[in-house]
Design brief:
There is one protein chain. This protein is of the alpha/beta class. Helix 8 links the parallel strand 11 and strand 12. The protein binds NADPH dihydro-nicotinamide-adenine-dinucleotide phosphate (NDP).
Protein backbone atom coordinates (compact mmCIF):
# COMPACT_ATOMS: atom_id res chain seq x y z
CA UNK A 1 0.00 0.00 0.00
CA UNK A 2 1.48 3.35 -0.94
CA UNK A 3 0.69 6.30 1.28
CA UNK A 4 -2.36 6.93 -0.85
CA UNK A 5 -4.31 4.62 -3.10
CA UNK A 6 -4.64 6.17 -6.54
CA UNK A 7 -6.09 5.36 -9.94
CA UNK A 8 -3.12 3.15 -10.85
CA UNK A 9 -3.17 1.05 -7.68
CA UNK A 10 -3.53 -2.67 -8.44
CA UNK A 11 -5.84 -4.80 -6.34
CA UNK A 12 -5.17 -8.28 -4.95
CA UNK A 13 -7.08 -9.97 -2.16
CA UNK A 14 -8.60 -12.91 -0.34
CA UNK A 15 -11.84 -14.79 -0.97
CA UNK A 16 -13.33 -16.87 1.83
CA UNK A 17 -16.27 -17.25 4.15
CA UNK A 18 -15.18 -16.32 7.69
CA UNK A 19 -12.06 -14.28 7.07
CA UNK A 20 -12.34 -11.59 9.75
CA UNK A 21 -9.36 -13.02 11.66
CA UNK A 22 -7.24 -14.01 8.66
CA UNK A 23 -3.58 -12.96 8.83
CA UNK A 24 -3.25 -12.80 5.02
CA UNK A 25 -4.28 -9.12 4.63
CA UNK A 26 -1.69 -8.18 7.26
CA UNK A 27 1.05 -10.29 5.64
CA UNK A 28 0.47 -9.02 2.10
CA UNK A 29 0.01 -5.38 3.04
CA UNK A 30 3.23 -5.55 5.10
CA UNK A 31 5.05 -6.79 2.00
CA UNK A 32 3.46 -4.04 -0.10
CA UNK A 33 4.56 -1.36 2.39
CA UNK A 34 8.05 -2.82 2.79
CA UNK A 35 8.71 -2.87 -0.97
CA UNK A 36 6.76 0.38 -1.71
CA UNK A 37 4.54 -1.28 -4.28
CA UNK A 38 1.44 0.25 -5.82
CA UNK A 39 -0.77 -2.66 -4.76
CA UNK A 40 -3.48 -3.12 -2.17
CA UNK A 41 -4.62 -6.45 -0.62
CA UNK A 42 -8.28 -6.58 0.43
CA UNK A 43 -10.48 -9.17 2.17
CA UNK A 44 -13.56 -10.26 0.18
CA UNK A 45 -16.12 -12.10 2.28
CA UNK A 46 -18.14 -14.23 -0.15
CA UNK A 47 -21.25 -16.36 0.40
CA UNK A 48 -21.23 -19.76 -1.26
CA UNK A 49 -24.18 -18.88 -3.50
CA UNK A 50 -22.18 -15.92 -4.87
CA UNK A 51 -18.89 -17.75 -5.45
CA UNK A 52 -19.19 -17.93 -9.25
CA UNK A 53 -20.17 -14.26 -9.46
CA UNK A 54 -17.24 -13.33 -7.20
CA UNK A 55 -14.79 -15.26 -9.40
CA UNK A 56 -16.15 -13.65 -12.57
CA UNK A 57 -15.87 -10.32 -10.72
CA UNK A 58 -12.08 -10.79 -10.59
CA UNK A 59 -12.08 -10.37 -14.38
CA UNK A 60 -14.72 -7.65 -14.45
CA UNK A 61 -12.92 -5.55 -11.83
CA UNK A 62 -9.43 -6.26 -13.22
CA UNK A 63 -8.26 -7.63 -9.87
CA UNK A 64 -4.74 -9.04 -10.40
CA UNK A 65 -5.35 -12.13 -8.32
CA UNK A 66 -6.70 -13.52 -5.09
CA UNK A 67 -5.99 -16.09 -2.42
CA UNK A 68 -8.78 -18.55 -1.78
CA UNK A 69 -9.37 -19.96 1.66
CA UNK A 70 -11.74 -22.20 3.59
CA UNK A 71 -14.27 -23.41 2.47
CA UNK A 72 -13.78 -22.59 -1.23
CA UNK A 73 -10.40 -24.13 -2.16
CA UNK A 74 -12.09 -27.07 -3.88
CA UNK A 75 -15.25 -25.31 -5.06
CA UNK A 76 -13.51 -22.56 -7.06
CA UNK A 77 -11.89 -25.02 -9.47
CA UNK A 78 -14.93 -25.32 -11.73
CA UNK A 79 -15.03 -21.54 -12.26
CA UNK A 80 -11.43 -21.17 -13.46
CA UNK A 81 -10.05 -21.17 -17.02
CA UNK A 82 -6.94 -23.20 -16.15
CA UNK A 83 -5.66 -25.13 -13.14
CA UNK A 84 -2.02 -26.09 -12.61
CA UNK A 85 -1.40 -29.83 -12.53
CA UNK A 86 -0.46 -30.18 -8.85
CA UNK A 87 -3.49 -28.14 -7.76
CA UNK A 88 -5.74 -30.28 -9.97
CA UNK A 89 -4.32 -33.51 -8.58
CA UNK A 90 -4.82 -32.36 -4.99
CA UNK A 91 -8.21 -30.91 -5.86
CA UNK A 92 -7.57 -27.55 -4.18
CA UNK A 93 -6.64 -24.05 -5.33
CA UNK A 94 -5.46 -21.38 -2.89
CA UNK A 95 -4.26 -18.80 -5.41
CA UNK A 96 -5.85 -17.39 -8.56
CA UNK A 97 -3.88 -15.31 -11.05
CA UNK A 98 -5.72 -13.05 -13.50
CA UNK A 99 -3.67 -12.81 -16.66
CA UNK A 100 -5.59 -10.44 -18.96
CA UNK A 101 -8.91 -12.08 -18.16
CA UNK A 102 -7.60 -15.63 -18.05
CA UNK A 103 -7.92 -17.07 -14.53
CA UNK A 104 -5.36 -19.72 -13.53
CA UNK A 105 -5.50 -21.67 -10.26
CA UNK A 106 -2.40 -22.65 -8.28
CA UNK A 107 -1.77 -24.30 -4.93
CA UNK A 108 1.04 -22.52 -3.13
CA UNK A 109 0.32 -24.37 0.17
CA UNK A 110 2.56 -27.13 -1.22
CA UNK A 111 5.55 -24.83 -1.52
CA UNK A 112 4.73 -23.28 1.86
CA UNK A 113 4.71 -26.65 3.60
CA UNK A 114 7.84 -27.93 1.85
CA UNK A 115 9.87 -24.78 2.52
CA UNK A 116 8.85 -24.62 6.19
CA UNK A 117 9.77 -28.27 6.68
CA UNK A 118 13.16 -27.81 5.04
CA UNK A 119 14.10 -24.33 6.28
CA UNK A 120 12.51 -24.24 9.74
CA UNK A 121 12.50 -27.96 10.52
CA UNK A 122 15.81 -28.76 8.76
CA UNK A 123 14.02 -31.91 7.67
CA UNK A 124 15.12 -34.02 4.70
CA UNK A 125 11.94 -35.66 3.40
CA UNK A 126 13.50 -38.40 1.30
CA UNK A 127 13.35 -41.91 2.77
CA UNK A 128 11.61 -40.80 5.98
CA UNK A 129 8.54 -42.15 7.73
CA UNK A 130 5.60 -39.81 8.42
CA UNK A 131 2.38 -39.97 10.44
CA UNK A 132 -0.35 -37.58 9.30
CA UNK A 133 -3.36 -36.87 11.51
CA UNK A 134 -6.29 -35.75 9.35
CA UNK A 135 -7.40 -36.18 5.77
CA UNK A 136 -9.04 -32.83 4.95
CA UNK A 137 -7.92 -30.26 2.39
CA UNK A 138 -4.71 -29.29 4.19
CA UNK A 139 -3.72 -32.93 4.75
CA UNK A 140 -4.09 -33.61 1.03
CA UNK A 141 -1.53 -30.89 0.23
CA UNK A 142 0.86 -32.10 2.93
CA UNK A 143 0.65 -35.73 1.79
CA UNK A 144 1.07 -34.83 -1.89
CA UNK A 145 4.20 -32.78 -1.09
CA UNK A 146 5.74 -35.56 0.99
CA UNK A 147 5.09 -38.12 -1.75
CA UNK A 148 6.48 -35.85 -4.43
CA UNK A 149 9.65 -35.38 -2.36
CA UNK A 150 10.22 -39.13 -1.96
CA UNK A 151 8.99 -39.93 1.55
CA UNK A 152 9.37 -43.66 2.19
CA UNK A 153 6.23 -44.36 4.20
CA UNK A 154 3.12 -42.37 5.12
CA UNK A 155 0.47 -43.41 7.62
CA UNK A 156 -2.75 -41.39 7.48
CA UNK A 157 -5.18 -41.40 10.42
CA UNK A 158 -8.63 -39.92 10.04
CA UNK A 159 -11.95 -39.99 11.87
CA UNK A 160 -13.78 -40.42 8.55
CA UNK A 161 -11.85 -43.31 7.06
CA UNK A 162 -13.26 -42.93 3.56
CA UNK A 163 -11.50 -39.55 3.19
CA UNK A 164 -8.14 -41.20 3.95
CA UNK A 165 -9.01 -43.99 1.48
CA UNK A 166 -9.79 -41.40 -1.18
CA UNK A 167 -6.36 -39.79 -0.71
CA UNK A 168 -4.66 -43.15 -1.24
CA UNK A 169 -6.84 -43.86 -4.27
CA UNK A 170 -6.26 -40.39 -5.81
CA UNK A 171 -2.49 -40.17 -5.22
CA UNK A 172 -1.24 -43.75 -5.70
CA UNK A 173 -1.42 -43.61 -9.53
CA UNK A 174 0.97 -40.62 -9.54
CA UNK A 175 3.37 -42.26 -7.09
CA UNK A 176 3.28 -45.98 -7.89
CA UNK A 177 6.23 -46.75 -5.57
CA UNK A 178 4.55 -45.04 -2.61
CA UNK A 179 3.82 -46.79 0.66
CA UNK A 180 0.59 -45.24 1.98
CA UNK A 181 -1.16 -46.79 4.99
CA UNK A 182 -4.59 -45.67 6.14
CA UNK A 183 -6.17 -46.06 9.56
CA UNK A 184 -9.14 -44.86 11.52
CA UNK A 185 -8.43 -42.26 14.17
CA UNK A 186 -7.83 -44.62 17.10
CA UNK A 187 -5.10 -43.95 19.60
CA UNK A 188 -3.80 -47.55 19.59
CA UNK A 189 -3.30 -47.46 15.82
CA UNK A 190 -1.55 -44.11 16.08
CA UNK A 191 0.68 -45.28 18.93
CA UNK A 192 2.24 -48.12 16.96
CA UNK A 193 3.07 -45.97 13.96
CA UNK A 194 4.48 -43.03 15.90
CA UNK A 195 7.18 -45.23 17.42
CA UNK A 196 8.79 -45.70 13.99
CA UNK A 197 8.05 -42.22 12.61
CA UNK A 198 10.42 -39.28 12.00
CA UNK A 199 7.67 -36.76 11.24
CA UNK A 200 4.27 -36.26 12.90
CA UNK A 201 1.87 -33.71 11.36
CA UNK A 202 -1.37 -32.49 12.89
CA UNK A 203 -3.52 -31.60 9.89
CA UNK A 204 -6.76 -31.80 11.87
CA UNK A 205 -8.44 -28.70 13.27
CA UNK A 206 -8.20 -30.11 16.83
CA UNK A 207 -6.48 -27.56 19.09
CA UNK A 208 -7.51 -24.38 17.27
CA UNK A 209 -8.20 -21.29 19.34
CA UNK A 210 -11.86 -22.23 19.89
CA UNK A 211 -10.73 -25.52 21.51
CA UNK A 212 -7.31 -24.87 23.02
CA UNK A 213 -7.59 -27.63 25.65
CA UNK A 214 -7.95 -30.30 22.97
CA UNK A 215 -5.20 -32.30 21.34
CA UNK A 216 -5.33 -35.06 18.72
CA UNK A 217 -3.03 -37.31 20.81
CA UNK A 218 -4.45 -38.44 24.13
CA UNK A 219 -1.19 -39.87 25.49
CA UNK A 220 1.65 -37.40 25.93
CA UNK A 221 4.12 -40.29 26.25
CA UNK A 222 3.75 -41.08 22.55
CA UNK A 223 5.99 -38.18 21.57
CA UNK A 224 9.71 -38.92 21.40
CA UNK A 225 12.86 -36.85 20.81
CA UNK A 226 13.48 -38.28 17.32
CA UNK A 227 10.23 -36.78 16.04
CA UNK A 228 9.74 -33.53 14.19
CA UNK A 229 6.25 -32.51 15.31
CA UNK A 230 4.43 -30.12 12.98
CA UNK A 231 1.07 -28.53 13.75
CA UNK A 232 -0.53 -26.75 10.80
CA UNK A 233 -2.50 -24.61 13.26
CA UNK A 234 -1.10 -21.10 13.84
CA UNK A 235 -3.82 -19.70 16.10
CA UNK A 236 -2.84 -20.32 18.89
CA UNK A 237 0.83 -20.22 17.95
CA UNK A 238 1.60 -23.05 20.38
CA UNK A 239 -1.15 -25.64 20.66
CA UNK A 240 -1.38 -28.15 23.50
CA UNK A 241 -0.15 -30.74 20.96
CA UNK A 242 3.05 -28.71 20.40
CA UNK A 243 3.51 -27.98 24.11
CA UNK A 244 3.37 -31.68 24.91
CA UNK A 245 5.72 -32.56 22.05
CA UNK A 246 8.21 -29.95 23.22
CA UNK A 247 8.09 -31.31 26.79
CA UNK A 248 8.97 -34.74 25.41
CA UNK A 249 12.05 -33.32 23.68
CA UNK A 250 10.70 -33.33 20.13
CA UNK A 251 11.47 -30.53 17.70
CA UNK A 252 8.33 -28.50 16.87
CA UNK A 253 6.98 -26.24 14.10
CA UNK A 254 3.68 -24.36 14.05
CA UNK A 255 1.64 -23.28 11.02
CA UNK A 256 3.02 -19.73 10.76
CA UNK A 257 6.02 -20.46 8.46
CA UNK A 258 3.77 -22.36 6.04
CA UNK A 259 1.23 -19.54 6.06
CA UNK A 260 3.90 -16.92 5.36
CA UNK A 261 5.73 -18.94 2.67
CA UNK A 262 2.56 -19.84 0.77
CA UNK A 263 1.63 -16.14 0.86
CA UNK A 264 5.03 -15.13 -0.47
CA UNK A 265 4.71 -17.60 -3.35
CA UNK A 266 1.24 -16.22 -4.19
CA UNK A 267 2.62 -12.69 -4.03
CA UNK A 268 5.36 -13.68 -6.46
CA UNK A 269 2.78 -15.10 -8.90
CA UNK A 270 0.86 -11.80 -8.89
CA UNK A 271 3.74 -9.31 -8.88
CA UNK A 272 6.95 -11.08 -9.97
CA UNK A 273 8.53 -10.01 -6.66
CA UNK A 274 9.75 -12.56 -4.12
CA UNK A 275 10.08 -11.00 -0.66
CA UNK A 276 12.48 -12.30 1.99
CA UNK A 277 10.50 -15.04 3.78
CA UNK A 278 12.43 -14.91 7.07
CA UNK A 279 11.96 -11.15 7.41
CA UNK A 280 8.23 -11.34 6.79
CA UNK A 281 7.91 -14.32 9.14
CA UNK A 282 9.60 -12.30 11.88
CA UNK A 283 7.13 -9.42 11.40
CA UNK A 284 4.18 -11.84 11.51
CA UNK A 285 5.54 -13.60 14.63
CA UNK A 286 5.48 -10.30 16.48
CA UNK A 287 1.74 -9.83 16.03
CA UNK A 288 0.55 -13.47 16.03
P1 LIG B 1 -10.81 -29.59 6.80
O1 LIG B 1 -12.11 -29.18 7.40
O2 LIG B 1 -10.72 -29.89 5.36
O3 LIG B 1 -10.25 -30.90 7.61
C1 LIG B 1 -10.33 -30.98 9.01
C2 LIG B 1 -9.69 -32.28 9.48
O4 LIG B 1 -9.75 -32.32 10.92
C3 LIG B 1 -10.39 -33.53 8.97
O5 LIG B 1 -9.46 -34.55 8.78
C4 LIG B 1 -11.33 -33.86 10.16
O6 LIG B 1 -11.71 -35.22 10.23
C5 LIG B 1 -10.41 -33.54 11.31
N1 LIG B 1 -11.15 -33.29 12.56
C6 LIG B 1 -11.84 -32.18 12.90
N2 LIG B 1 -12.37 -32.33 14.13
C7 LIG B 1 -12.03 -33.57 14.56
C8 LIG B 1 -12.26 -34.31 15.76
N3 LIG B 1 -12.97 -33.79 16.77
N4 LIG B 1 -11.73 -35.55 15.88
C9 LIG B 1 -10.98 -36.09 14.87
N5 LIG B 1 -10.73 -35.44 13.71
C10 LIG B 1 -11.24 -34.19 13.56
O7 LIG B 1 -9.79 -28.43 7.21
P2 LIG B 1 -8.38 -28.09 6.54
O8 LIG B 1 -7.76 -29.37 6.10
O9 LIG B 1 -8.53 -26.99 5.56
O10 LIG B 1 -7.57 -27.47 7.79
C11 LIG B 1 -7.06 -28.30 8.83
C12 LIG B 1 -6.18 -27.48 9.76
O11 LIG B 1 -5.03 -26.98 9.04
C13 LIG B 1 -6.88 -26.22 10.30
O12 LIG B 1 -6.51 -26.08 11.66
C14 LIG B 1 -6.31 -25.08 9.49
O13 LIG B 1 -6.28 -23.87 10.22
C15 LIG B 1 -4.89 -25.58 9.23
N6 LIG B 1 -4.31 -25.00 8.00
C16 LIG B 1 -3.13 -24.32 8.11
C17 LIG B 1 -2.52 -23.79 6.99
C18 LIG B 1 -1.23 -23.05 7.14
O14 LIG B 1 -0.81 -22.35 6.19
N7 LIG B 1 -0.55 -23.16 8.25
C19 LIG B 1 -3.12 -23.94 5.65
C20 LIG B 1 -4.35 -24.70 5.64
C21 LIG B 1 -4.92 -25.19 6.79
P3 LIG B 1 -13.01 -35.73 9.38
O15 LIG B 1 -12.53 -35.91 7.98
O16 LIG B 1 -13.39 -36.99 10.05
O17 LIG B 1 -14.06 -34.65 9.52
Amino acid sequence: MKKEINGKTKTIGLIGENIENSLSPFIHNQIIIKYSLDFCYLPFQVKEADLNKAIQGIKALNIKGVNVTFPYKEKVIEFLDEVKESARRIGAVNTIVNNKGNLTGYNTDLIGFKKSLQDNGKFVIKEKNAVILGAGGAARGVIYTLLEEGIEEISIFNRTLKKAKKIKQDFSPFFPQSNINIFSFEQDNIKNKIKEANLLVNATSIGMVCQIDNTPLSDEKLFHPNLLVYDLIYHPVKTLFLKQAERAGAKIINGLPMLVYQGIESFYLWTGLKPDGEEILEIVRQIA
